[in-house]
Amino acid sequence: MPVGYSHPGLRFAPPWATILRRFAAEGLAARGLGSRTRLAALGSRLAGSGLAGSGLAGSGLAGSGRGLAKSTALGLARDHETVPCVLLHWWRSKSQAGWHNPNTWLPVVLLQYPVPERRGLEMTESSTAPQLPEQKSAFEKFLSLFSDIRPGEGGTVALLVLNAFIMLGLYYILKPVREGLILSGFGAVVKSYSSAAMALLLVFIVPVYGALAARVNRVWLISGMTLFFISNLVVFALLLQSGVNIGIAYYIWVGIFNLMIVSQFWAFANDIYSEDQGKRLFPVVGIGASAGAVAGAALTGSAFEQMSNGQLLLLASALLGVFIVLTVWVNKRETAGSAKEAEKAEQPLGKEGGFHLVMKNRYLLLVAFHILILNLVNTVGEFVLGSLFVQEAIQQVGDGDAFRAARGEFIRTMYGNFFGWVNLAGLLVQSFVVSRLIKHLGVRRSLFIGPLVSLGTYGVSAISPILSIVRVMKIAENSNDYSTNNTVRAALFLPTSRDVKYKAKAAADTFFARTGDALQAAVVFIGTRLSFGIPAFAAVNVVIIGVWLAVVAGIASEHKKLTEEE
């Protein structure tokens, strides 16, 4: 943007030029300016600010978008630097007097329009302009290879990427340990029934979490829960060293821990970013999660092979300590330049529970059922894969109690390699595909990708239930789940309140996810009684996916009512 910004009959100089550039960059610009629905959305937002009362809607901005689509009549180019002229032109034409003096009316425009929050854009009594970086840093230019990164956003994004890396890396250290302990000692059927126990426990855990969230700020909420998980890992490590069989208890714990820590992380990201920022930046943050999963699985399958299970648990507990430090650092960065953000960060949430928030809202209920069915389909598939792995371990190592430990190590190695391929594919999709899907398809259309990929996976598995084939199809399904599905699911909570982001999201991400596991246990129970083979279980998943597609269609409809993004 030029130092002096001109408009027919007007010319003004910084700091207004800087303000307007940022004003434009935050949601008014840019790509898709000619889209009629985007123009209608802009008109609605302006109307909600009180600007439309003087005839803005009548100008065509809030209807078909003709007021902006005919940009040539206003002398406007289709880029973000000239978008502010839309407001200036309108204000000039509607004002009765004083329009020629920007010091008179320009502040009114800026104050009345609800500009999205940006870190570091705080206006104070002693400052007429925010202090903003004029250009992207070298690191931000690098991140722009993966998504649309704006100047000043790179620092927090980098910390969140690192935290996501640690979070998923340590989980993929813990997960093969879990699989080895449960499958070697109890088998795939008991594993399925253990999943059902998680849902029962979460009936009590989610309300306790909600009550804690109503009493402490977000940093204490996240840090307190993480410290609790660290203490759990230390106890498990001591029990393993003492020779105690912790297979079922540890399996249940990891299932709850994984969902809670991930849900908290994305709730925090939802809390610090606006909807526009989230859709742009979540795909980049997700790269950290995908890369951490790759690193964790690779190290577990190679560098950590010589470490005992107890040592791996202690390593994970140390990484959780780093996770807390990074969370506090991000919070400090995001609140340092904004009194409003600092005040929000210190506020506990409301008294309403997560379950109540979900049950009273159709959109949240559909999202919860989406998560439930996703987990049901995926865990039925995990049962199929786990059964094939057990068969392979028996063939390669041997049967009976004498070979239990050896089978456990064999299964752990197979799962480590499997997760390595899953996460490598997920990393590539997350890095180069997800941001472009959200940009070009939007959040709503991207929701359909998950069910369609799963439909292909179980359609093929029903026809060819061979380990090598099922393994490849599960790699495709899981890599999509851990990249596209996870990012889109997090973005579904961007247009919601803070209570929903922390409490309702926790209920949906944990209880409803594990309820899907409980239903999977019922499917396994009935299927084994009816002597279902792998093709039959895959066919059951195909039927469930049909219901899943209907639920996703409902979410898309409700999401459209919440936002007018596309």
Please give a quick description of this structure.
This protein has 566 residues and is mainly alpha-helical.
How would you explain this protein's 3D organization?
This protein has 566 residues and is mainly alpha-helical. The chain folds into 2 domains: 104 residues; 403 residues, Growth Hormone, Chain: A. The protein is built from 21 helices and 2 strands. The protein has a two-stranded antiparallel sheet with strand order 1-2. A hairpin with a 2-residue loop joins strand 1 and strand 2.
Q: What percentage of the residues does DSSP assign to strands (E)?
A: under 5%
- Structure class: mainly alpha
Uncertain regions spanning at least 5 consecutive residues: 1-130
Instruction: Tell me what the CATH architecture of the largest domain is.
Output: Up-down Bundle
**Spatial gap, N to C terminus:** 27 Å
Features:
566 residues; mainly alpha; 2 domains; disordered N terminus
Map the helices and strands.
Elements: E1 5-7, E2 10-12, H1 16-25, H2 36-48, H3 66-69, H4 71-74, H5 84-94, H6 102-112, H7 138-143, H8 154-185, H9 187-213, H10 218-241, H11 247-272, H12 275-301, H13 309-336, H14 339-346, H15 354-359, H16 362-396, H17 404-446, H18 449-463, H19 467-491, H20 498-529, H21 534-562
